[in-house]
Amino acid sequence: MGRVSWERFEDEVGRRGGASFWWRDDDAALPSPALERLMSFDLPLALAVVPQAAVPELFHLLKDSVSVLQHGTDHRNRAAPGEKKTEFPAAEPDELALERLVAASQRLRKMAGERALPVLVPPWNRIRPPLAEKLGSIGMTGLSCDGKARAVQGVKQVNTHIDIVAWREGKRFIGEEQALSAALELMEVTDPVGWLTHHAVHDEAAWRFLERLARVEGVRWRGAAELFSYTAPGHG
Ligand SMILES: [Zn+2]
Questions:
Q1: Is residue 236 part of a domain?
Q2: 69 CA to centre of ligand 1 in angstroms
Q3: 64 part of a folded domain
Q4: Which of 119, 149, 162, 227 has the most CB atoms lying inside 10 A of its own CB?
Q5: Which class for 59: exposed (0-12), middle (13-18), buried (19 or more C-beta within 10 A)?
Q6: How many angstroms does the Cα of residue 88 sit away from the middle of ligand 1?
Q7: Which CATH number belongs to the domain containing residue 193 in this structure?
């Protein structure tokens, strides 16, 4: 694909009659200047909060357009040697993992109130399928990971697709070209396209990109409450 400018991107969105995006930002726990900058956006945002690390002051800063998702329990890596980073290692019995999740949900709900949705965002986007299939038994009806969703019984899965941080390159912004090209390709096959951000590590280029993206006309930014509900608006 040739060079993708903002102009070309906006033309493409217009040609398609609009675009459907959603936005998830991960690793929220404490107030910070980065969190305040995140709150300067006027878009529906799904904020993945680490329940056992969060403080009540965080929630005082959230705008009405922010939904809270549950980002694991404590975001601690419990992987065994040789296992990929995960909060939910293969060696942990499902019952124990579910107990931790319930305790974390209760803590989060107490602080976040109605804006907390029963949606799990597993740290490192990783949860073993047998455990994911039991989420419904503790009242978690939604799951959000990364990339292509696999069907998990009893759980509504809405994933993100474009992580704007280049983690292995000093956590710099991935670049306008890469982000916009990815979005154009995904718009052909995915609805909605999910943007993944991590406010605490954004460089200035990442922030500027998001600020520009927010101004693209014809984008329908969809809120998490709608996306994770089983009853789509306009039906029944
Ligand atoms: Zn995380």
A1: no
A2: 12
A3: yes
A4: 119
A5: buried
A6: 13
A7: 3.20.20.370
Assigned domain for 72 exists: yes
Classify residue 234: in a domain, yes or no. no
Phi-psi region of 165 (alpha: psi -120 to 50; beta: other; left: phi over 0): beta
User: How close is the Cα of 123 to the center of ligand 1, in Å?
Assistant: 5
How remote is the CA of residue 16 from the centroid of ligand 1, in Å?
Answer: 33
Q: What is the DSSP string of 73-89?
A: SS----PPTTSPS-SS-
**What's the CA-to-centroid distance between 86 and ligand 1, angstroms?**
10
How many domains are there within the chain? 1
**Would you give per-residue pLDDT tens digits along the chain (236 residues)?**
567 899 999 999 999 999 999 999 999 999 999 999 999 999 999 999 999 999 999 999 999 999 999 999 999 999 999 999 999 999 999 999 999 999 999 999 999 999 999 999 999 999 999 999 999 999 999 999 998 777 788 899 999 999 999 999 999 999 999 999 999 999 999 999 999 999 999 999 999 999 999 999 999 999 999 999 954 444 43
Query: How far, in Å, from the CA of 8 to the mean position of ligand 1?
Result: 33
Q: How many helices (H) and strands (E) does the chain have?
A: 8, 11
- Which domain, by its residues, includes 196? 6-227
